[in-house]
Structure formats: C-alpha cells, structure tokens
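Q: Fold this one first, please.
A: Sequence and structure below.
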Amino acid sequence: MRNSLLPLVLALALTALAGCDSAEERAEKYYQSGMHYLEAGDIDRALVEFRNVFKLNGEHKEARRAYAEAERGRGNLREAFAQYLRLVEQYPDDLPALTALAEIGIESGDYATAGGYADKALERAPGMLRLAALRAVADYGVARTKSDTAAQVAAIARIKELRKALPDNIYLRRMAIEDLLQAQDYKAALTELNEAIALSPDNADLHAQRLSVLAALGDNAGVEQASGDDRAVPQIADLNDALVRWYTCRTSRKRPRLLRERTRTMENETQAIFDLVQFVSNRRGPAAAVAELDRLIAVGNDAPRDHCRAGRLSLRPQAQGGRSVRCQDILKDAPRTRTAAEDQDQSGAHGRGHRQRKRAQSWSESAEVGSGQRRRTGS
C-alpha cells in the first residue's frame, strides 16, 4: 500500500515545487514590467505591476523599493513611508531604506521618528556624514518643538560644523534657514534660500519660504517676480489663495499671471470669482468688473453662472455710479460654494497637506509683517 502511494506523493510534491517556481517567475515578470513602465514615466501602471509582484512574492526587495521611491517621487510621503517601513521590517539592515525613513520623517516634521531611524542607520554606518546630518537636523527639530533653547543651540552648532563638509546638503541648509527665520534675520535667510533654490530649483517648499521672506522684508517687487515662477506655488492651494489676497490688497496695476491662471482653473469656485472681481474692480473700476463677470458667465458652468449673474446685478448700480466694490458686497446673497481649502480640511488631509497649510499661514503672517513695516516707515 505504501509503495503504491509513493509515486502519488512524489508527484504532488513536484507539482507544488513547480508551482512555487512559477509564482516566482511570474513575480519577476511583473517586476520587470513595472520597471519598464517607470522608465516610460507611467507611474500608475508601474505601481499596479508592483502590487501584482507582492501578491506573488511579498518579500521582493527591489519591487518594494521601487514602489516606495515612485510614491515618494510624486509626493505621496505617507505611502512611501509605509513601503519603506515594510522593507526594513523584512530587511532590517537595508541602509537606503533606513535613510529614506529618516529623511521622510524630517520632511513630514516628525523629528522624533526621523531621529530614531537616523540612529538605526548610524549603527550600520557610523562614519557616514549624511546620516550624522540627519541626526543633527532631527535633534534641532525636536529641541525646537520642545522649546529647549540649549538643545537648539547645540544642534545648530553641529549643523554649522557639518555644513563645512556637506555644503550642498539640503536638510542642513533647510534647518539653518529655519534657525535664521526664527531669529527674524530675513536678509540672511533670503541669501540662504536663493542658494538652496539654485541647488533644488523644483522644491516648492523653498519657493514658498522665499515668498514669505520677501513679504516680511516688504519687497513687493520681489514677491511679484518670485510668484511669477510656476514653481513658487505649485499644488499649494492655500498659499495660492494667500498670494491672491496679497495682490488684491496692493495698488499696483500689474495683473500677475497667477490671478488669471487661477480663475481659468477654478472658475467653478466662488472664492476665485470673489478674488478676480475684487481685483478688477479695485484696479479698473466696477464697469470692468461687470465685463469680467460677463466673460465668466460665457465660459462657466451652471453654478458659477448663477453666482456671476448675482454678482453682476450687485455691481451694476456701482458701475453706473463709478464706485469701487468690496468683496463682502459681491454675491452676498448667492449660494455659497465650499473652498478648496475647506474641502481638504473636510476630507481629513494629513502630512503634506497639513504642512502646505502651515506654509500658507506663514506666508500670510509674513505679508502682515511686511505691511506693518511699510506703515511704520511710511513707504
């Protein structure tokens, strides 16, 4: 009986082994396909292929790394962090993954987490200056969060020393900028920011900080020039709104491209209509504002058309009398549309969205500082 079952058992075992090999081979094919899509710039399809890899082989190191890097590259820090975390759970000595976790912690403002992963990376590569820089930056961030002045001073001293060996390290430079901003040394901060932007020209955070510093210095011409750069306010809705308010309150007759592009892309947003009409009315009068509303009515959807018609009725008497119009008088009886910022808050956005709102708040506060300086100096 036993002899008669032996061939069947062997056959089943061989089938199982063949199935495992087949799964690994298919996983590798999915991985190669994903890498091909990445090289072609089709990230969405690449990520689909990598997920197929994980269904067949959840410990495929390079697929996991490629997935994490792709998500990080497009700004999805939360998902990137999760993927790197899975990678170090499976491969605890993976230095690039530990380094990435520390960097993402810093970029997200989670300095305690960043410090923990920097320590783990330093245990595996104790002499690496890049890791020492991450540790110093994390220490400064934690100290600032705790308002520990002595620890801040010690950390910034290490940062300055490390910058001698790593002059192009963006994390060291960013923290040096933060320290200058905290000390309100805006001129020195602007110099650092200009150098940092030269090193990382597509870094939206740096452009946003430079706008804040220029506003704090009262450099209106600098703000107008900097905000004309498309990289200054990409994908930062609240900073975009703050810039619009800043331009709306200025007497300059220059119409920045930002305002026009915003109304083209946000014509279904009531706030965008408010801002545009306020700007046009202040610069060219109510009659021009009515003409602008006519344009919006011609190109808009049903909801913005209703708002614009209501605003037009509200503006017509003022246009005939030649008076300017206040924002709160426009469309005051029209149904309210929720702003993009409110939509983001309503959806419970975290991570990068939260930091962008903080940058926008910083921009608004800096603009107020700059306005106050000009009022005191009479400029």
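Q: Good. Now the second chain.
A: Here it is, same layout.
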Amino acid sequence: MKHTAMKFFQHSYKRLGLLLLMGVFLIQPLACKKKENKYAPPPPPKVTVAPPKVQDVTVYLYMTGRTAAINNVDVVARVRGFLEKIYFKDGDIVKKGQLLFTIDPREYLTALHMAEADLLNAKSSLNFAKNDLDRREKAYRKKAVSELDYLRSKAEYDKAKAAVAAAEAKVEEAKLNLSYTKIHSPISGKASRHLVDVGNLVGASGPTVLTKIVSLNPIYAYFNVNERDVARYLRKVAKEYEGKSREGRLRPKRTVKVELALATEEGYPHVGKLDYVDNRVDPNTGTLQARAVFSNDDFTIVPGFFVKIRIPDRVEKNALLVPERAIGLDQVGRYLYVVGSDNKVERKDIKIGPQLGTMRVVEKGLKKDDRVIIEGILHARPGIKVQPVAPAPEEKPGNSEAKPESGKDKGQNPDQSNKTSKASKS
C-alpha cells in the first residue's frame, strides 16, 4: 500500500511539471511581444543661420613706422669763451628767437671797440688823401705838378678808401662775433638737457654742442610700403590719368589721406596727408619709403615713437560679411557651412578678404542669399539634415560696432604679425 501511494505522488508531480512547462511556453510569446522596440531616429540638431551682411567696405593698407621731427637742430657755440649763463630748464618748450645761453662777451666787446677805432683812423686817412687829391688835381690842371704826382695822389686816395671799407668790415665782424655770445633758439620746439655746464670753456677746438632742439608741431611719420602695393597703386593712377598730359601723370594732383595711431591708442585718431615718396624701391627690403605729416597741437606724438599707419586703398562695393567665428579652416582651406533648401548642410570653400570688427569679408564662394551657419557649427556635417533657426536680435551679423582687428590673410598690417588685414566702413 505504501508502494502504491508513492507511485501516485510521482505521477502527480510529473503531471504538475508538465502543466507548468506548457504554461511557460504559452506565456513567453506574449511577454516577448510586449518588450519589442522599434528604432526612432533623433531629431535634427538645431543650428543658427543668417544670410551674409551686404555693405560697402573700405580696404586699407597697413604699415608700421617711426615719427621724426621736421626740424632737428644742434645748438652750438660759434665763438670761443666761457659759458656764462643758461636761460632755460632742461626739457623746456622753447620759441624761435628765445635766449638760451650767454658766453662771456668782454673779449668780443673789446675787439669791437678796437675795430671801431681802426675805422676812425682809416676815415681820417681817407679825408687827408681826399684833400691831397683835390689840391693836386687843381695844380695838375694848371700844370703846376707833374702827372706822376697827380696819379700817386689818386692812388693814395683809393688806398685810403679801401682801408675804410676793410675797417668797416672788421667792425661788422666784431659785432657779429659779439652777437654770437648770446645764443638764441633757431626754431620753436622742445629742448633737450644742457650738455655743457656754466663756467666751462666752449668753442675752443671747434663748435661745441650746447643742447638739441626738435620741432614737435607738425611732425613727420616715416614708413615703408610694399612694392606690390606700390605697383597696384601706380596702375590705378595710370588708368585714372590715361590720356592726360605727361606732367599730370608724373605728378598727379591729389591728396592721399594717412591715418596714424600710437602703440597705446585704439583706432586711428590722427589724420594727416602723404608728404613725400622716395624715388626708388629698396632692393634689399622690396619696399618704398614714404612720409606723412600730422598735426601735433597737444604734443602727444614725440619724435622716435613707433606708430601704426593705415592708408585707404579701395572701396569694395556690396561686400559680403559673415561672423569670423563662422569660418572654418582645414588643410583644404577656409570654408563655411550653409543650409540648403532641403535643410541639409553644404560646405562652401571661400576666399576671405579684410576684417571689419568681428566680421570678415568673403570675396569668393558665397552668395548673398545663402543661409550661413553661425552657431552650432560643431553639430553640423556636410550632408546631414539640420533644423535651422533665426538668430536672436543681438546675435544678428553686423550689429556689433566696427572695430579694427588684426587678421592674417590679406593686406599688410604689422600691428601683430606685420601681415594682417583690416577694413572699415566707408
């Protein structure tokens, strides 16, 4: 009986296990069906797009230079003597004709008195010779004296007359030497320190430099222009003056504006004009020296300053500008990402021009109706679809104030790399 009960339980367990196994196989398809997932692609990335800004842009040539005084004078002692007094302070602004130094004048005052005495003596001899000539001339007419006596008297008169002229010249020389004991400023400008102290002997072995004076207003700025820019300018002038006289072509009557900035100044606040151009290009540097003159009423420009120079070269009409940050660079060159009509990203290889603040001129490769990606460039790749959005009002291209910034692609701006490019609103 025990054996029968055991068989019953074993048979029941097998039936229960079979039922559980069937339940698992029936439930599994339903469970799998609930967990099934379909792939959903991510939404297109958002990028900010804007058309290029269209405006006229003035292109400049950029150079560096040095300022120089128009007049640079060494004040020297022209006569020998002891320095008696100094009438200015080191570094003073002096005016033309202002007294600067005096040399002990007693020696030259004595020489003047001696020369004046010699002149009186010569005049006395002249009067005697004149009276003697008149007397002998009357006697000669009456045949009372020989012709030889008359001619000798006339020669004595001429000699006395020459002696008076020589004595007068000696007086003038003495007056001139006496005037040299007072040394005046030959120009208006800024004086350096005095180079000789009071009490020293000056002019003993030649002219002694006492101080130096440089003029400050106006002031020169010398700079060098690249020979390619010179050649382009000459071609432009030749076209403008085609058919005119030879003289008009060689010396065109035009004023070339030149702008200057000191190393510590923003922008180019000083405006002058081209004053001189050298007659040949330096073969060692490939540059042509030029000079501009600037007003310096406040004396802020000092001779010898390093300065930045720019000259308007040309105006590009309806130039296309894009934000500098939108331009990419790789081994092929510079490029922009634009969004096509199907909202797909396209790459456009471009040629850039001068820079205007945070904007850059695009000379080739871009159209004015292109939608340029200016934000979200890292999410853009050629061929992918994107979701273009308009920029916020403060992000629209061209809203930023135009400020000169250096670039390295066009023009000559030695402000940083000496080969950078800029532009300004015309």
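Q: Anything worth noting on the second one?
A: The longest strand covers residues 306-323.
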